[in-house]
Amino acid sequence: MDTVSTYEILRLTITTVLLASAPVMAVALVVGLGISFFQALTQIQEMTLTFVPKIIAIFVALALALPFMFGTLSRLSSRVFDLIVGGGV
Q1: Fewer CB near the terminus (10 Å): N or C of the chain?
Q2: Number of DSSP helices (H) and strands (E) in the chain, helices first
Q3: What's the farthest any 2 CA atoms get from each other in the chain?
Q4: What is the pLDDT along the chain (89 residues), one digit of tens a residue?
Q5: What is the pTM of this model?
Q6: Measured CA distances, 16 to 37, 45, 56, 74 (Å)
Q7: CA pair distance 74, 89, nearest whole angstrom
């Protein structure tokens, strides 16, 4: 295995992980910002107010984004297996 193949696999893996985790991370960011704005406007500093809605939103986003994540990871594994079969690794 040469360095070009190694860097290609690493690049594909990092890109896939970022792409697969993006929907859940975006939902967590939006919900967190919304809760922060709500707390700043109402001056309610309750700790459970931050965690409970964010956890629920993350679980819902994870359930909805699971087919997309599975497809993305399946494409990566197929590409890596094709590189292995083709002798690129």
Answers
A1: N
A2: 2, 0
A3: 61
A4: 678 878 888 999 999 999 999 999 999 999 999 999 998 898 888 888 888 999 999 999 999 999 999 999 999 999 888 888 887 56
A5: 0.79
A6: 32, 37, 25, 10
A7: 18
